[in-house]
Each structure stands twice: as structure tokens, then as C-alpha cells.
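ugh ok fine here u go
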Amino acid sequence: MARTRCGLVSFIVPGASSPGYRMKSLGLLLCGALLTLVATTVAEARLVRIWSEEELFSKSDLVVLATPIATTDTAERGRFPSAQFSDQPVIGVNTIFAVKKVLKGENGTATVTLHHYRPDRMSVLNGPGFVDFEPNLKQAFRLYLVMERDGRYAPVTGQGDANLSVFLEK
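structure:
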């Protein structure tokens, strides 16, 4: 038996001097500390609208299965063009896709240019849902798009949630 001191009170705990008791006590202490750390960590998130496939399709001007063939930065530099993400520095991007199949829109479309953004230097917490394409991977995507005034296309879900308009095909 060993005498254990807890605060101002001293008491006898059977087996307290054994190495197993000390390891168990240390384990419980570490588990308690970890639980406290996890329980008090601040989680941040933003509300994201979830679009159904029917809604994506009906609101789109063009829906295609396509493969990226080239990606180039535009001259656009600055802050994200939406008040919701105005702290996000961005660079404009044009990605040209070779159209494999038109699911909605003009059937004669051979290529389509997707106008989107990428982060410039860093991404802000709870920021935009960016998309990124690697033409050399030859991956096919299903794109839900709306036409912009200049003839390029943009994600139907908006630039802030571009990732919700682009689906990797298997």
C-alpha cells in the first residue's frame, strides 16, 4: 500500500506503488487531456447549398462530358469577385475542354472554355470551392455550365462553389 496525496487530503490506495497503476493513471490523465482539447477546439464551417442533379441540369445552359486540354491563367488578379469571399486573393483561369458528349445545349460544340479562379498564394478559411484541372491526366468530367457575357462558360453553382458544378467521370 502507498500513501497518495490529493490536494490537502492524504489517503492510502492499495497497489498505488505498482508500475501498472502508475501507467494506468498516466493513460487516464492523457485521455482526459486529449478529450478536453478535442471538446474545446473551435470548428468553423460555412453553409453550402447542395444542388440536386435535376436542379444542376435545369439551370445549366450547357452540360457536357469533357476532358481538359489546356489551362491558362488570365490577366485577372485581385480579390474574389463576390462579397462573401472578398478576403480571398485570386487569379483568373481559363480551362479549355474537348467535348466528348453534349448532354444539354448545342450539339456541335467541339470545345468549351471554363472560366474559373484559383487561389493566389493562400486560401482563406471557409473560402470558395475552387476547381483545378490537370490536362496531362486525360480525366473526363461532367460539367454543368452557364454562359457568361463574353462567351466563356462558368460553373452553374457560381464561382464561389465551382466544385459543385464539376464531377469526375469514372
